[in-house]
Design brief:
The chain is built from nine helices and 17 strands. It is of the alpha/beta class and about 375 residues long. Strand 13 and strand 14 form a beta hairpin.
Length: about 375
Amino acid sequence: MPHGRISGRIFVLMNRIIIVGGGVIGMLTARELALAGIQVALFDRAETGRESSWAGGGIVSPLFPWRYLDSVTRLASWSQDCYPALCDELRTSTEVDPEFTRCGLLLIAPDEAATATEWGTQHRRRLEIVDSTQFRQLEPRAASVPENALWMPTVGQVRNPRMVRALRLSLQQPGIEIHTGETVEKLLIENDRCRGVLTAEGRYEADSVVICAGAWSSDLLSNLGSPPEIHPIRGQMLLFRTPPGTISRMVLEGSRYVIPRRDGRVLFGSTIEDVGFDKSTTAAAREELHSIATARFPVLNDHPVEGHWAGLRPSSPAGVPYIGPHPEIARLFVNAGHFRNGIVLGPASARLAADLLLDRTPIVDPTPYGWTAARG
């Protein structure tokens, strides 16, 4: 319950931090702050972890990582190094296994081998060039085999629905309040300082507010100076019900990837559609994804599609998230705009946001993620 309650439905949450948004980014940020001894109130307009955090593929790497700015790589590398321990902690404390699995990632980009290997050397990320024979050994079910491909053997994945469930359970501890089904309607700005949030339930006051609302972040911030350039991009996915071992490796070609889960199911995605906040699925996308998936992996023709869904990614210029304080409004922070990389950038983004909120030495230079920093 709130720290105190005043007549007129004013909830006083002083010495606490309010987080708006209960996806992976919001929950990881809440977890970081709670581990530092801070009391947290987290608000989500629906249920925690039910938007893009649930809908994504769970690859713990940016897709074609050498194509991103170094600012993205720095966050990704920090997160990748801590993911095994994070998932072990979540599994132990919640008895829900996020299923972190190092199955490796094969990337088909024949003209980018030199750029990719140079990137791998620079950032100390393991990346190898494999020939057609090695490719076939790694993933024998692929229909066609390139003359050469790139292989990142240490790249892992998590199963998104299990990851967000484990995070939600990990927040059920003293000092963390979770308000689901409660939409933040307005930020309370007084004398160039953020004092809290307003919902239909009342006014919640706190020391600081962090916007982690994914694609919806800009709605709350659009009336303030220097709003972040975040908008939704729809992605549709298919899930095939297949037995274990049907496909062994994650494989990325173009903007489409295949991800084998531990229980054998195979995820294939995804589309990139600029359609606003329309989260509906379409027959055209289902047909397109199914056609590409079965052409690349004919074995999938023998297995039914078990699921078809869509999520709204929070896009940002060059895919660089916004992490840090508002340049003009005190005690208002943001941690949003991770586009396709919310899972892999999440732990580092949460740690960096907590560092900035608590005036700790940041894990990386925060300058590239600032509200007004140049992107791209």
